[in-house]
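pipeline stage [seq->struct] | target=MarR family transcriptional regulator | organism=Siccirubricoccus soli | residues=156
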Amino acid sequence: MPEALPPDPRIPPIRDASRRLVRELGFLRPTLAGTELPASAVHALVEIGRAGPLRAAELAERLVLEKSSISRMLAKLVASGELAETPSPEDGRAKLLSLTQRGRATLARIDAFAEAQVAAALRRMPPAAAASLAEGLAAYAAALAACRREREKEDG
């Protein structure tokens, strides 16, 4: 039997910080970013707002959500007037999702909320930590995504 590796002392503080980030950013609450929308809907509006019109499958991939979850969420966002569906010019069977005027207004409120939240936190951080924060978070997110893609490839 192979000898167990000693525990990595970096892991517990990263896990602790990750849990605190999830709580402080509001992901455990029923709504997010000063809206009445759940986190997945907020992220959908942000992604569509950044990328432009997307097909549901593209959005599901970006948000790492099952197509059935995306479908239900999108139906609610279309019904509430946040999103519009239009036929794709390349394939009339496919629908493109885009922000409506109401969706653009909601996205503007989400962005203002998030920017104020980040700015307030940055003002409370030591300058050296703030300077490297974006790079470290981006590297961590990319590494987590690479691990997920590798697991998905192995699973199938």
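stage status: PASS
auto-comment: Residues 30-124 form a domain with the Arc Repressor Mutant, subunit A fold (CATH 1.10.10.10). DSSP finds six helices and two strands in the chain.
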